[in-house]
Write a structure and sequence with these properties.
Number of strands: 0
Largest sheet: none
Structural class: mainly alpha
Radius of gyration: 51 Å
Order of helices and strands: HHHHHHHHH
Distance between the termini: 146 Å
Number of helices: 9
Amino acid sequence: MALFRPYERTDSTPSKDRISALTPKGEKASAKAAKVDAPAPAAAEPTQPTPESRQAVRRKQGATPTRRAAEAARMERLHPTLTPKQQRKADSAAKSRARAEAWDRVEKSPERQLLRDYVDTRWTAAEFMMPAMILVMAAVMVTMNNVVLSSWISMSLWVMLAITMINVAIMWRGFKKLLAERHPGASTRGLLVYMFNRSLMIRRFRQPAPRIKRGDPI
């Protein structure tokens, strides 16, 4: 009895190996060949739109506008219909632009450019009028208790005004001669008032700004 060893079953081969071992080699080769030879699925070719599909797209997008409707839409984009409030704002802006353009044309005229240079190149008594008026008003308020002194201070303002008028008259006479030499036949309409206003303003605040220094030749 000791000579015989009981029978033991050993699973030395995995289950997959057992299946491959049991499968005939011919079937394995045919399966591999079928996998290699199987054609790949072809990509779907784009289909050309048919007249029916085009017509359906047109119906979906809407009917084609007529020429009159297209022209009306274009004019509406160029000149939109405004409410009364918007129309008033647009008219006001257009008037402001027109006034600015007209003012620029006047300011760029050769007569006014020459006058500005003529005033800016010299000292004038008129440009001291504004500071003098402020000082005189302050002095009058301080000396209100002394009537005589306050009256004399007030009279100094009239003296300053007379000097300014004389200075502007002399400048105007010299400018008319220069204007006749540079621009014969040019009109002097409105230039006297423009000269007085220009000379009355302090040089730093003059508009357009001076483009010439004091004492430089014109």
